[in-house]
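As a warm-up, study this chain.
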Amino acid sequence: MSSPDPSSKTEGGLTDVPGLKVGHYTDPRRPTGCTVVLCEDGAVCGVDVRGGAPGTRETDLLKSENTVEHVHAVLLTGGSAFGLAAATGVVEWLEERGHGLQVGPARVPLVPTAVLFDLWVGDQKIRPDAQAGRAACDAATTGAVAQGNVGAGTGAAVGKLFGIRRAMKGGIGTASVRLGGFTVAALVAVNAVGDVLGEDGQVLAGARSEDGLRLVGTTAATMRGEGPQRLVPGSATTIGLVATDATLTKAQANKLASLAHHGLSRAIDPITTHDGDTLFALATGRAGRVDDLSGLGAVAAELVARAIRRAVRAAEGLPAYGLPAVRDLPGQPASG
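Now compare it with the structure written out below.
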């Protein structure tokens, strides 16, 4: 089948892709959590890890030359490297329900995972664990996907180049589009060092002035000679995935994840070496085959950008931690 037309109207979110469920777990004790995307029947998966400080699990499995084609879930989680423990709960949950790759006498669920650093806010000893992963699976549904301060986006922040005290609230967002016979969607947890840019290229959320009342524009401020604070490596990360019901090979899924990264540069500025940006690509294979990925990749990149903007527009501020949201700044609308 030929490439999809990228001009169709955007709607909904990740669960518009048939065969996928999304579940959030939001920890009530401090701002952190995890988000699971279940594909219990299996989906072809690829990944592109570009950040300077990634935290991941099972990404080597997704290399095109390796033998396993399908995964059974993808997990996005807070808690930095500690949050990888949440994947154990997802694996156990799937195993108990008979999902996984048959390997001899056992079924082994495959759950690629990426983490973000949200230990700036609250008690850093509280982070997603196996029970959190299980809770996210229990909450998974094909219904509308909650956005903002939920799941992996709960403790996310953006605009951190001049320090966390001048940053703003990030979050998790989603977007989708129907393209003829295909559905394409994105889900992104936004925790960048840089600012989030609106559709007009202006800063939507990011580093604020010393008095906290206005956006300074991180790149513009840096060009003026305002030196950034010394950053802690691994203290950011925007993670997410794109998904489609198209039939793709694993090599194509890896390429789609690569093309989707263009959406980060459209909606986040600057991209830094302190980010650990990781994007997965899932293909459930319930629709036709795509021969040329150009159109699909263009749409995936645009949906990543839209999901990023939706994440910060839906976010609510965390006044206890000095992190306002877009809606909290003077002149901004009351809701996302």
